[in-house]
From TrEMBL:
It comes from Triticum aestivum (Wheat). The lineage of its organism: Eukaryota, Viridiplantae, Streptophyta, Embryophyta, Tracheophyta. GO terms for cellular component: apoplast. It is an enzyme of class 1 (oxidoreductase). InterPro entries: Cu-oxidase-like_N, Cu-oxidase_2nd, Cu-oxidase_C, Cu-oxidase_fam, Cu_oxidase_CS, Cu_oxidase_Cu_BS, Cupredoxin, CuRO_1_LCC. It catalyses: 4 hydroquinone + O2 = 4 benzosemiquinone + 2 H2O. This is Laccase. One of its GO terms (molecular function) is oxidoreductase activity. NCBIfam families: laccase (TIGR03389).
Length: 583
C-alpha cells in the first residue's frame, strides 16, 4: 500500500494558521484487515491506515474536517465522529442505519463537517457492530492556543481499549444470537497489552510515556472499550481534571480517573516525582455478585523520567494501589464531583422544561420466535434483551432512519411512541423489593420495536435516566449524538421527583455528550433541541447496544433555513435496496 495512502493530508496554509483563520483539515482513512499476535495467538483485527489506535485528527475550533473513507473490508461500515455536535450536518454523523447506510465493501465515502464551539478531546470510531474497536482521538484545540490553565509541555492521548482473541465480526454474530459468554483477554493502553500479560513467559509490550521532571503533560484519556468502565492511576502522581467530552471543567484534583465507555477526560499530570520509573494502571471494574462475572483484567504501562537508569537503579517500579474491581462507588464519587467551568459565553441551563422523560434502563427477555407463547424458563427459547422503559430497540437493517424521515415516509419503519416513563411502579434498584413470583412476570411487558421520540425545534427536554437491578446491576454510559446536555445531578437508588430536584446544579453543571448513569442509581440531564435531524441515543456498552438499549430522537426543523436541516450534500450517498450506500 502506497505510503501516501497511509498519511493524513492536512490542507492548512501556514499564513492562515498564523492568522488564526479557520482551515480545512483533510484525511484519507483506508479501513482494512490485518493480523496481530498477542498472548501466543494471532488474531484478525480491523484498522485504519495500518494503525492501532488509528490516526489522530487534530484541529482547531472553527475548522472544517474532510475525511475520505476507503472501505477495504469484506463488509460494510460507517465512521462516527463521537461528540462532534454536527450542527445542521446530521448527514455526516456516521451512525449506521440511523443517519446513513454502511459504506459497501470496496466503496468510498466522504464526510465533511465543521467543528465549532467545542474545545478538548473527542474521538472517532466505526459504528457498525463490534468494529467500534477501530478508534482514535479527535482533538479540538482552542483558537490562538489559549487554555484556561497553564499551557502543558505536551499532550498525550491515552486510548484505553480491549484485546479480543475472537474476531470481532464473529463476536457481534454471537451477541446478536444471545450468546454473551465471550470476554476480552486484556485491557490495552494505546494498543499495548502491558507486561502483566505474557506469552510463554515473555511479557507483552507496555505503553511508555517519557517525561521530564518539572514539566506538565495533558493526558487525553478516552475509554474506547466495548465492555467495561476503567479506573486509571499513575503511581506517585496526581491529576488535575480540566475537561471532558470537548468542554472545560472546574479544575478537580484527584489521584485516580474513572472513565466509562464513550467518555473522554482531559487531565494535567505534573512530572514532579523523583526521577525513576512509575507504573500506570488501567483496571476494568464490574458489579459484584450476584451479577454475572467476567474475568478481571487490566493493562500496565510505564511513566519513565529522563535521567533515570534503564533498570530503575535496580529498584522495584512503584505500582499504584487500585480499588477493588467490584467497588463501583469510586466511579460515582468521581463523576459526581465534576462541575463545568464558569464562562461568560457558556450556554445557560434552560430553567423551564417543555418535556420530561423518565427512562428506566434494564434487561428483560423475549421469545426467540417473536411471540409470547414460548416457555420463558427454557433459556433456549428466549433471548435476553436490554431495554429503555421495557422497549428493546429494533435496529433497521436495510435503510436508514434519516433517509426514511427526510423523504417524508410516515409508516412502516418506525413509530414515534417511545414511552416517556416506565410501565412499572416497582423499586428496581433493590432486588429484595421486586414483587414475588417468577422474574419473567415482573419483566412484562418487554418487547422489541423501533420506537422513537419526536421533538419540535427549540424544545427544552429533561431526561431522568434510571439504572435498575433486573438481571444485572450495571451502570449505563448513555450517549446522545448531535447534542451535549447539562448533567444537573446524579444519585444512588430510585429517583425521587419530589426531593431530588433540590440537588440540581443550575450554576455550573458539566456539559457532556455521555453521562455515566450510576449502578442502581440515576442521572438528570437537560438540553434544548436546537439541532434538527435524526439523533441516536444509546448505552455505550456494546452488549447493551446490540441487546437494544437505544432509541433515536427526531428533531423537527425550525422556522428558518438557518434552523433547518439542509438537503444531503452532493457527496452523500443514499441507501440502496441492499441496505448499503449506493455506488
Amino acid at each position: 500500500m502506497a505510503a501516501t495512502i497511509f498519511c493524513a493530508v492536512v490542507l492548512a496554509a501556514l499564513a492562515a494558521a498564523a492568522g488564526g483563520e479557520a482551515a480545512v483539515v483533510e484525511h484519507t482513512f483506508v479501513v482494512h484487515e490485518m493480523n496481530q499476535t498477542h498472548l501466543c495467538n494471532t488474531t484478525k483485527i480491523y484498522v485504519v491506515n495500518g494503525q492501532l489506535p488509528g490516526p489522530t485528527i487534530d484541529v482547531t475550533d472553527g475548522d472544517t474536517v474532510v475525511v475520505h473513507v476507503v472501505n477495504r473490508l469484506p463488509h460494510g461500515l460507517t465512521i462516527h465522529w463521537h461528540g462532534v455536535r454536527q450542527i445542521r450536518s446530521c448527514w455526516s454523523d456516521g451512525a449506521s442505519f440511523v443517519t446513513e447506510c454502511p459504506i459497501p465493501p470496496g466503496g468510498e465515502h466522504m464526510y465533511r463537517f465543521n467543528v465549532s464551539g467545542q474545545v478538548g478531546t473527542l474521538w472517532w470510531h466505526a459504528h457498525v457492530t463490534c468494529l467500534r474497536a477501530t478508534v482514535a482521538a479527535f482533538i479540538i484545540r482552542p483558537k490562538g492556543g489559549r487554555y484556561p490553565f497553564s499551557t502543558p509541555t505536551k499532550d498525550v492521548p491515552i486510548i484505553i481499549g480491549e484485546w479480543w482473541e475472537l474476531d470481532l465480526v464473529e463476536l457481534d454474530k454471537r451477541m446478536h444470537d444471545g450468546n454473551f459468554a465471550d470476554n476480552p483477554l486484556s485491557a490495552t493502553i494505546n494498543g499495548k497489552l502491558g507486561d502483566l500479560n505474557n506469552c510463554s513467559g515473555k511479557p507483552e509490550e507496555s505503553f511508555v510515556l517519557d517525561v521530564v521532571r518539572g514539566e506538565t503533560y495533558l493526558l487525553r484519556i478516552v475509554n474506547t472499550a466495548l465492555f467495561s468502565e476503567y479506573y486509571f492511576k499513575v503511581a506517585g502522581h496526581t491529576f488535575t481534571v480540566v475537561g471532558a467530552d470537548g468542554y472545560y471543567l472546574t479544575p478537580y484534583k484527584t489521584d485516580m480517573v474513572t472513565v466509562a465507555p464513550g467518555e473522554a477526560i482531559d487531565v494535567l499530570m505534573a512530572a514532579d516525582a523523583p526521577p525513576a520509573h512509575y507504573h500506570m494502571i488501567a483496571l476494568a471494574n464490574q458489579p459484584p455478585e450476584p451479577d454475572p462475572q467476567i474475568p478481571g483484567f487490566d493493562s500496565r504501562g510505564l511513566v519513565r523520567y529522563a535521567g533515570s537508569s534503564h533498570n530503575n537503579n535496580g529498584l522495584p517500579v512503584l505500582t499504584p494501589l487500585m480499588p477493588s474491581q467490584h467497588n463501583t462507588m469510586p466511579s460515582y464519587y468521581f463523576h459526581n464531583n465534576l462541575t463545568g467551568l464558569a464562562h461568560p459565553d457558556r450556554h445557560r441551563v434552560p430553567m423551564h422544561v417543555d418535556e420530561r422523560l423518565y427512562f428506566t434502563l434494564g434487561l428483560g427477555s423475549i421469545c426467540r420466535n417473536g411471540t409470547k407463547t414460548c416457555q420463558r424458563r427454557r433459556s433456549r427459547e428466549t433471548i435476553v434483551v436490554a431495554t429503555m422503559n421495557n422497549v428493546s430497540f429494533r435496529h433497521p437493517t436495510n435503510t436508514s432512519l434519516l433517509d426514511w424521515y427526510y423523504d417524508g415516509r410516515t409508516s412502516g419503519l418506525y413509530t414515534e411512541d417511545l414511552p416517556d416513563h416506565s410501565p412499572h411502579p416497582y423499586n428496581y434498584t433493590d432486588r429484595t423489593l421486586i414483587p414475588p413470583g417468577p422474574l419473567e412476570e415482573a419483566l412484562e411487558p418487554t418487547f422489541k420495536a423501533t420506537k422513537l421520540r419526536r421533538f419540535r425545534y427549540n424544545t427544552s427536554v429533561e431526561i431522568i435516566f434510571q439504572s435498575t437491578a433486573l438481571l444485572q446491576s450495571d451502570s449505563n454510559p448513555m450517549h446522545l449524538h448531535g447534542y451535549d446536555f447539562f448533567v444537573l445531578a446524579m444519585g444512588i437508588g430510585n429517583y425521587n421527583p419530589k426531593t431530588d430536584p433540590e440537588k440540581f446544579n443550575y450554576h455550573n453543571p458539566q456539559l457532556r455528550n455521555t453521562v455515566q448513569v450510576p449502578r442502581t442509581g440515576w442521572a438528570a440531564v437537560r438540553f434544548v433541541t436546537d439541532n434538527p435531524g435524526m439523533w441516536y441515543l444509546h448505552c455505550h456498552f456494546e452488549f447493551h447496544i446490540i441487546m437494544g438499549m437505544a432509541t433515536a430522537f427526531i428533531v423537527e426543523n425550525g422556522p428558518t433555513a438557518e434552523t433547518s436541516l439542509p438537503p444531503p450534500p452532493p457527496e452523500f450517498k443514499r441507501c440502496g435496496s441492499n441496505g448499503l450506500t449506493q455506488p
